[in-house]
Amino acid sequence: MIVNLLLALLIGIGLVFTVLILRAAAARAQLRPDLESIGLGAVTNFFDTLGIGSFATTTAYIKLRRLVPDSFIPATLNVGHALPTVVQALIFIKLVQVDPRLLAACIVSAVAGSLVGAPIVQRTPVRVVQGFVGVALLIAAALFAAKNLDVGPAGGDALALSGVWFVFAIVAHFVLGVLMMFGIGLYAPSLATLSLLGLNPAAAFPIMMGACAFLMPVSALGFVRSARIDLRVILGIAIGGIPAVLLAAYVVKSLPLVWLRWGVVVVVLYAAIMLLRTALRPAAVAQPVASV
Questions:
Q1: What pLDDT was estimated at residue 252?
Q2: Of 51-60, 92-101, 172-181, 231-240, where does the model show the most confidence?
Q3: Sequence ranges of the domains in the chain
Q4: What is the pTM of this model?
Q5: Fewer CB within 10 Å of terminal CB in the chain, N or C?
């Protein structure tokens, strides 16, 4: 019952979100994505579905190619990857077994966190956003390296949590929902947290994907009204990302990703250093951008 309700809500949110994004893009004359952003969405969401994550890789590429200004990065990540993540969630919530109460509670908590975090990001000075995203990339690089070195929680075999651990998981996902608005990806810390609590790592996938799939379209409404967004890039990421998710989930399913993760570590570290250097420059370099 809970799972079917979540799937129905997710389909409805995805359809409404698609209409709103297209209307906003038409109003801003930004309905023509370029091939570069479509390719970016395809590559990042393909590997996102296989467990690499999309936020760190997308941020690194945006920074290296200067695709959008640094202050646009949170909106680009949360809005651009929203629809591909909805598709991921529909697949994994349907196919992977986990306690429906834990699934629903973590999703609601993460969405609440995103509603708190989104307006904060929109009013935060550019250099602070740069600093947050830079730190997020450092964390992502450390997690990639830890994964390659088999350092971290192995997880248990539980499909549900109870008592204090149930509450802890809910609180943790509220915090992760807030941080996600600053460009700090939810997947890796969610997986680590749930595994530490004894949940089967496979059961964490519908939770982390479901949380992101619900919170990203909801929080995106605030980002779309902001001046810090380029909807051409957003549409490109979505157009490239959706078929890539389906390809990864149903055709490829798994790949040896260790060397790719080491490559991502190098690129992400470079992008993090560049962002942090910019954030630490004199205040005159980076000014707040007012939301509209």
A1: 78
A2: 231-240
A3: 2-283
A4: 0.80
A5: N
